[in-house]
Specification:
Distance between the termini: 40 Å
Number of strands: 11
Radius of gyration: 13 Å
Largest sheet: 7 strands, mixed
Strand content: over 45%
Shape: globular
Number of helices: 1
Length: 123
């Protein structure tokens, strides 16, 4: 069974940092794209960052470029999202997802999803 479990969310002040982790099981980590998405109350889900474990391609949304870093530890089947210089507008539920490609995840919204972890940034 494919499972993705997020951890590392919490409450942080603006300007602070958090590191999220997405632990995957039930499938071979290599060969998949893993993405981080977020959804704030009343807003649509947004793709934040994505890494392809086939060719190492990395994508960031403009809103987080330069502040967030996605990385993958294939030995641990875990993908991380390091979030620095956090802003109140980063407040959202952050979820990770696994798909066959970044296109499938980011454009087609197809893949396996975790339940998410809440990140709250206070001003």
């Amino acid at each position: 069974e494919v499972q993705l479990v997020e951890s590392g969310g919490g409450l942080v002040q603006a300007g602070g940092s958090l590191r999220l982790a997405c632990a995957a099981s039930g499938f071979t980590f290599d060969g998949y794209a893993i993405g981080w998405f977020r959804q704030a109350p009343g807003k649509e889900r947004q793709g934040v960052a994505c890494i392809s474990n086939t060719d190492g391609t990395i994508y960031y949304s403009d809103s987080v470029k330069g502040r967030f870093t996605i990385s993958s530890d294939n030995a641990k089947n875990t993908v991380y999202l390091q979030m620095n210089s956090l802003k109140p507008e980063d407040t959202a539920v952050y979820s990770c997802a696994a798909g066959y490609s970044d296109y499938e995840l980011l454009v087609q919204n197809k893949g396996h999803w975790g339940k998410g972890t809440l990140v709250t940034v206070s001003s």
